[in-house]
């Protein structure tokens, strides 16, 4: 095993440790399904969105496609929602910490880290998806925390800022990076949308339709799509 392969293998092991709360939930239920879902009927679909906080294409997708799909299917209990903020960034381990460079600059790294901190803290999609939507496209950490981290979300602004700008945020970003570089085929565009393990390029333009095509029987949120 070469050094690079070993490095990412260790990162993935670290990811398991840092997200142990999610893995425990995985053993007893569906951690990325809505808490509101009660005994859903039919199959479930797994959605993974690989993204960047200041990428214009990601912003359009999140605000128009992801949120539309969430509004229609979020409480159905039929979709597992996973968000991986990293994209085309790069992280290098240095002395027990990480140094990261992001495609759209240092503010994007901080915002990617903030998203990862929020996801790690909140666990459930009905909590983190609206916050990620709010953070997406913001200018910097201050504007994102002031606008998106309100008391009603149960997130302490000070602690989230410390996570986003500190070693924990960088480690979470590096772990998101380990998951991203493990993609096969590799990520060449952001956002990179994976449904049930396969990249679906058309989901960039109509995510809800692509999810509904895989749900049998179709839930209520797919009604307008099943009539096509």
Automatic annotation (TrEMBL):
Keyword list, A-Z: Glycoprotein, Signal
Signal peptide start-end: 1-21
Keyword Glycoprotein among record annotations: yes
GO molecular function annotations of the record: oxidoreductase activity, acting on a sulfur group of donors, disulfide as acceptor
Domain of life, per lineage: Eukaryota
Any single Pfam family the record assigns to this protein: GILT
InterPro entries membership: Interferon-induced_GILT
Similarity comment: family membership: Belongs to the GILT family.
Name of this chain's protein: Gamma interferon inducible lysosomal thiol reductase
């Amino acid at each position: 095993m070469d050094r690079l392969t070993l490095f990412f293998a260790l990162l993935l092991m670290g990811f398991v440790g840092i997200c142990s709360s999610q893995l425990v939930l995985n053993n007893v239920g569906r951690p990325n399904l809505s808490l509101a879902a009660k005994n859903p009927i039919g199959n479930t679909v797994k959605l993974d969105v690989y993204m960047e906080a200041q990428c214009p294409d990601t912003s359009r997708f999140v605000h128009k496609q992801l949120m539309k799909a969430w509004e229609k299917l979020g409480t159905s209990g039929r979709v597992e929602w996973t968000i991986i903020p990293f994209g085309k960034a790069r992280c290098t381990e240095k002395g027990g910490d990480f140094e990261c460079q992001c495609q759209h600059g240092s503010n994007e790294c901080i915002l990617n880290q903030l998203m990862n901190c929020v996801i790690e803290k909140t666990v459930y999609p009905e909590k983190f998806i609206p916050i990620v939507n709010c953070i997406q496209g913001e200018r910097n950490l201050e504007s994102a925390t002031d606008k998106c981290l309100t008391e009603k979300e149960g997130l302490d602004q000070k602690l989230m800022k410390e996570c986003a700008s500190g070693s924990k945020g960088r480690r979470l970003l590096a772990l998101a990076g380990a998951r991203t570089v493990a993609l096969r085929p590799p990520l060449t565009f952001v956002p990179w949308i994976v449904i049930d393990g396969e990249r679906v390029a058309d989901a960039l333009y109509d995510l809800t339709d692509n999810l509904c095509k895989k749900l049998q029987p179709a839930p209520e949120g797919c009604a307008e799509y099943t009539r096509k």
